[in-house]
Structure formats: structure tokens, C-alpha cells
Amino acid sequence: MILVTGGTGLVGAHLLLHLLENGAKVRAIYRDEKGIQKTKSLFQHYKKPALFDAVEWVQGDILNIPSLEHAFIDITKVYHCAALISFDPKDENKLRKINIEGTANIVNFCLAKGVEKLCHVSSTSALGDLAAHETIITEETEWNPEKYHSDYAISKYGAEMEIWRGQQEGLKVIIVNPGVIIGPGFEDQGSGQLIKKVADGLLFYTYGKTAFVAVNDVVRIMIELMESSICNERFILIGQNIVFRDLFNTIADTLKVKRPSIEARPFLIKLTWIFYWFLNLFFRKSNNVSKDTLQSLLNNKEFSNQKIKTALQTSFTDIHQYIRENFSAN
């Protein structure tokens, strides 16, 4: 039996679908019925509603030890997809608790219950920082604690430390570090929010750059790694490093809406953050646009996917084509 945490999120829901398509017996943790309905809607999106009924759902929480006791009965492999993604400074404690303490709980149960192998979904945010002589981030790029990192990045880096602790205690592990994951469903999360903003008439673009990957590639590679003899390794999973302007244009053209037409230069990014900060301070408006989020639009980080391509002889979906195929306005 395979256990999936985070089965009500973008990666976890797609992972459940792929595992069931391959005939696996799967158990998934859920916190409330609302989350299950999102996963059910995704199965319906792919016209596979019957497979949804094959998931064994167990109500629980990665921070609730008693609930995990039941979830881990007869489990041989674990995919740990559950995490909090937030760049709001107010969520610092929640990020550390869910992403670090929650991962520690999963590792401890895997060790106690004799789980064969654990796959942890991390993030490119947890990767290292480029030195002066380096130009592209790889799995070997070293984390520099003296450089600034968002609370989210620190929490994901801390979660990876828990995974490596488990490995040192005898657990076979795999860590994957996806870029920004693009996939249908879950419009209120991650790339879904990005696509919605373009659909709603986003005016601004930047020439910043980051890494993107199709969700189907992420879950396919996770399964291949777990079924292989490869263990105790981490792999960057990215399809392409893409300039935000190019990505926004592809999304706009696919949705048949107007392309963003105003370049957001650094001073405008700073003014935007100050504006939202004042809204939050004086009017108690929820600040869902953080300084870290805005700053990321100006970054020009490049990531390498060569290690996973060599290990599995795999290739990645073209992101622009994936968007055109999965988000068409028809």
C-alpha cells in the first residue's frame, strides 16, 4: 500500500491519478471534505471519475500524531507532497511547523513502521545560492546561510534536513525539487493563481526569469524514481527556464485575452509592495502580495535539469505547448 500526503493539492491529486492508472493501491490523507472535492473534480477533468473511488481516504494531519498511526498501517512507500506554500511574513511560524515539523513526523513514522522508501516533494527555493563563479543552479549548489532567503525557502530547506536525517537513520529517500508547477485544476494555488491573474487582465510583465515544469512530468518522474533502485539522491525537476514576459504572453494568447503591456521595473515593484503594505497596516486587508513574491518577478535564476535527464534518460514537456493544450479558451 502506498501513502500520499497532500493528496488534495495540485501535485498530490495528479500523483494519485497516475498511481491508480498504473494499478497501485493508494491511501491518501485528507483534513476536510472540501479538499477531497477538489481532487474529485480533477479526476472528472481527466474523465477518470471511476478511479477516484479507488482511493482509500483517511482523515488526518501531518501534525496530528494519532491520526498518522492509522494512516501508516501496512504502508510500504510514502510520497510526501503536503506542504504550506506562502510568502506572507505572518505565516513564518505556520511554515516552520507544517513544513519542518510535519516532515519530521512523516520521517519518524517511516522509520518506525519500516517503510521501504520515501519521496519528498521539495522546491527549487530550497536549493543553494550561486557563488561568484557560478551561472546555473544545480543539485550541488551550496546553501549560503548568510544570504537572504524567504521564510518559505527556509522551511523547505529545513524539511530537506529532516529527510536527510531519516536517510542517516536507514531510510531510503528521494527528494525532488520542482520549479513552478503548471497544471490544471486548483485555480487558487500556485500557477493557477498566475493564470487567473492573466485571465483577469494582468497589465504588467517583467524580464525576470525562473524555472517551470508541467505537473504530469513531476508525478511521472516521482513514480519512476520510486520504482527504480535510485535512492538517497535529490533531483531538480524543471522543464524550462522561462522569462515571465514570454510565459504571460503564452497564457494570454491561449486564453485569448490581451497580453500584459507595461514593463514593471524595480521601482514599480517596490511601490506595489508599499501600497499593499499600507492597505494591510491601515485597513487590515489581507496581504496576498508579498515583497518576496514581487521580488521573484525580477530574479534571473537558471536551474539545471541535467542530473535527472541523465539518471532516467527522460525528457520534459515544452511548457508553452503544455499551456496551449491544457488551458485553451476554446
TrEMBL record:
One term under GO cellular component: cytoplasm
Domain NAD-dependent epimerase/dehydratase: residue ranges: 2-228
Any one GO molecular-function label of the UniProt entry: aldehyde dehydrogenase (NAD+) activity
Residue intervals passing through the bilayer: none
Gene3D superfamilies registered for this protein in UniProt: NAD(P)-binding Rossmann-like Domain
PANTHER family, per the entry: NAD(P)-BINDING DOMAIN-CONTAINING PROTEIN-RELATED, PROTEIN YEEZ
Protein's UniProt name: NAD-dependent epimerase
Organism the protein comes from: Flavobacterium glycines
